[in-house]
Amino acid sequence: MEGGVSQFALIFSLATVGMLLLAGFIILFVVFYQKKMIEEQLKRQELELNFQQKMMEATLESEENERRRLAGDLHDSVGGMLSTIRVGLTTISKKLPDPQLIEQSKQMLDETLSTVRRISLDLMPSTLEKFGLVPALREICDRVQATALTPINFLERGEIRIIEAKRALKIFRIVQELVNNAIKHAQASAINVSVSGEEQLKITVEDDGIGFDPKVKFANSQNGSGLGLYNMENRTRLLNARLDFDAQVKKGSKITLIVPYETIESLHR
Amino acid sequence: MTIQIYLYLAVAQTVLSAIVAIGALIRYRSRSLIVRLIGFVFLTSFLANMASWLMVGTALRIFVNSSYPISLIITVALYSRIYYDLLHKKNRGWFVLIVSVFAIFALINILFIQKTTPNSYTYLFHSAIMITYCLLYFYMLMQDLPSLYVHQLPMFWFNAGLLVFHAGTFFLFSFHAYLVNVLKNNMLIYWSFHNMLSNTEHIIFLIGLYYDLRWLSRKGAALPTEV
């Protein structure tokens, strides 16, 4: 009887320990399985994000290549032909008894030529490729100042580093869009563009116009109606930068692009 | 194993039940339904323990073993409600059936079968139900893949505590009648082991409540059941 009892106690203990081990195994299995699944999910999300970023980059790059091609064609081909026509018109006007007859046509041709040059410059600013970001930004302000009614001030503060061409082009496009928006939509009487870059590149576009609600604008960009803002967001993301909207309705708007230097391959100027 | 150790463990169990109940019921309005129900489960357990303690020294001592099966009926009903919520509120009929069958079985057992002796068949039935619920919840957790790591989910800890306790005591309840009636074993060691496991379960529940309160203090609202 005693032997039977101890044998039973042994079986009972083993069964209980077995059940406890099984319970522990199930709990640990759930923890590790779920951990592994979450890690895999995160990895998949990261891959998807990388893929999307690469797609976005490729899209923007092909867009820039197309612009470059168009700018080249406009400047070299159309611009060249228009210049030749102008020379021809000047020659003809000298032979005419009354040169004033084609003066109006010559004026229209001059306007067309300057328009072609402006479009060409907007499409691909040669200053950016030749002299870098800051001169290109100054040029865009000067050109806007010359053509638009809104006064635009450009201010450079501190030491700005030279930025790699592709990244500089993205920054340039963002600022170009911000300035265009201020002119087109803000009803501003003055625009200030300031660039500073001691620890990080900081570009601020400020106007005294009607302002806007960034939340509404972002909602529009999500549903596709605000394409400019959407492109700005994409470019900002690709730069690992930040776009701060400090907008107050009816008191103008202040938008700051902050690009940390760590993320931009840069050299001291 | 002395009676003294057994009593210490039993007192600790009663105190821990009260602590878990308080931990689950404080900031009542901000807590999720599940945590509130957990609070009521442990309040029931605490009251059943207290009733037993109070009955020991009186003429009612023959009913000492009856307070637990009655508390188990309430506990099973509360846990069924919790797992019904956790398992996406599906198969309501099954949960109602389980609670009804358990309640009828517990009452029949208390009145006609094991009467005033420890109602081990009721405990065994209870353990079987709880192990099934725990396994279903873990299965669901693996299927649904919550957005948080499972160890941050209070319900994961509650479930782990329940699984450890009921898996550990399953064979104790299975062989209780045989051990007492046939082998005439001294049950003190077995019940001390039971109380030890029960205290472990309470401590695991307290970890779950810690995560719940941490979430509450960070987010200001109860953790959603879905995560």
Task: Give a verbal description of the structure.
The complex is a heterodimer of chains A (269) and B (227). Chain A is α+β, with helices and mostly antiparallel strands and 269 residues long. In chain A, 66% of the residues lie in helices and 14% in strands. Chain A contains seven helices and seven strands, in the order ααααββαββααβββ. Chain A has helices at residues 2-95, 103-123, 126-131, 133-147, 165-184, 214-222, 227-238; strands at residues 152-157, 162-163, 191-196, 200-207, 242-247, 253-260, 266-267. In chain A, β3 (191-196) and β4 (200-207) form a beta hairpin. In chain A, α1 packs across α7 and α4 packs parallel to α5. Chain B is mainly α and 227 residues long. In chain B, 77% of the residues lie in helices and 0% in strands. Chain B contains seven helices and no strands. Chain B has helices at 3-25, 33-56, 67-86, 92-113, 120-144, 154-181, 188-219. In chain B, α2 (33-56) runs antiparallel to α3 (67-86), α3 runs parallel beside α5 and α5 packs antiparallel against α6 (154-181). Chain B is globular, with a radius of gyration of 18 Å. Chain A binds chain B through residues 4-5, 8, 12, 15-16, 19-20, 22-24, 26-27, 30-31, 33-35, 37-38, 41, and chain B through 135, 138, 141-142, 145-146, 149-151, 156, 160, 163-164, 167-168, 170-172, 175, 179, 183, 185, 193.
